Amino acid sequence: MIKNRRKQKNHKFKLTASIVILLLTAFFTTACGNVGSDNSYNNEKTPAVSENEENKNLVDLNGVLKVHYINVAQGDAILIQCDDENMIIDAGKNNKAGLVDYYLKEQGVEKLDYVVGTHPHEDHIGGLDLVIDTYDIGTILMPKITATTQTFKDLITSINNKDLKITEPIAGTTYELGKATFEILAPNSSDYSDTNNYSIVIKLTYGDTSFLFTGDCEDVSEEEMVAKGLDLKADVLKIGHHGSRDSTIDEFLLAVDPMYAVISVGRVNTYGHPHKRVMDKLKEKNIDVYRTDESGTVIASSDGNNITFNTSPDSYDYRDGDKSGLVDDNDDSNYPDGSNNNLSVETTNDDSEIFIANIDKVGEIVTIKNNSNKDQNLKGWTLLSVTGNQEYIFEDFIIEAGTSITIASGKAQGDIKWGTANIWNNTGDDNGILKDNNGNIISKFTY
Ligand SMILES: [Zn+2]
């Protein structure tokens, strides 16, 4: 079901001048529409200036802005596309890197004009190293806070390898993404006790519609934004910190006053996200909620006047107490030593520290990464191509701590050669499974 509601705004008049400019711009430039492969939206063009009094202030941006809240289970990964320009905010955990990469390729992304690492927790920056390695990169925005984890080191290595620079987010700075603009709203301090509060908060505006992206920012940062009197008003709010009770304080929600909320959260997570306190507030205010744990990837499209979604709104269900006592809810990333697999309750051992990072099906190369602190001999382990039911059994081969190896088939070259036949099915689904020498599934790579 596609929802298409129009919201009355009080700031229409100040937009009039910019509408005229935008109309002139639109007249001389080509359309941006049709980014990506999904055509399931209501993408009708709205008349620029209508005789009809009702439509008088509609904007014609001659295209569509798309915001993809990619389903990366517990974590965030958001792709924003407008006028052939692309931006990514976070890229999920390490073991979701391949999935994010695949998703971007599916959308035809070749360059990322902006890469935002909201804060250095693994469920946000884990996949960013592969993104940096793979695409043409423009501006990288990351807060001024470091982490001692292997994940963070990997990201910095990838940035350095391409001679890229990190831009510090300065609140109040605005950037352009095609005909959309975005403004940095946070962080507003240089020192927080909780890493989550360093999260870069961004307000994206496209015509008369707006989106707020909050990373994992919590009450402290939300209070600062409210106290500064920033224009937080937005149509779509990405709920902070996967729906944790430490985010989305009343004053903040009141100031944002969203029509829609999106929660990026894992179906199975040890934190009990999203929490009752947050879900109750959204329900009470009758805010439509879209959740990656219920709908999978959520795509919002804006023509500058209306926002439509690729799916119908989800439930106000919460998980408080599901896994209580297992882990400190304040930290959804990993332990200081970089390990996090012991937090996993995924049945597929999805958060293993040794995992399939990518399957390049066309290139016939599988990348396996060892994100743990110790070397692992893969002797007796198996890599399975599910569709063709082909199995590669590893011989004596050590994957060193913190490194990746490649397994090549067909004409490809890699650290290990899996025969000369092509293994991976290029057209349909072909998932990869990695099993240890006892036959336990260690990692599953799913398209
Ligand atoms: Zn997070």
UniProtKB/TrEMBL annotation:
Cross-referenced InterPro entries: ComA-like_MBL, Competence_DNA_uptake, Lamin_tail_dom, Lamin_tail_dom_sf, Metallo-B-lactamas, RibonucZ/Hydroxyglut_hydro
Annotated stretches, region: Disordered: 310-346
Ranges of Polar residues composition bias in the record: 336-346
Keyword Signal attributed: yes
Any Pfam family: Lactamase_B
This protein's UniProt keywords: Hydrolase, Signal
Record's signal peptide: 1-33
SUPFAM superfamilies according to UniProt: Lamin A/C globular tail domain, Metallo-hydrolase/oxidoreductase
Source superkingdom: Bacteria
Ranges of compositional bias, category Basic and acidic residues: 316-326
A single GO molecular function term of this UniProt record: hydrolase activity
Name of the protein in question: Metal-dependent hydrolase, beta-lactamase superfamily II
Domain LTD: 337-447
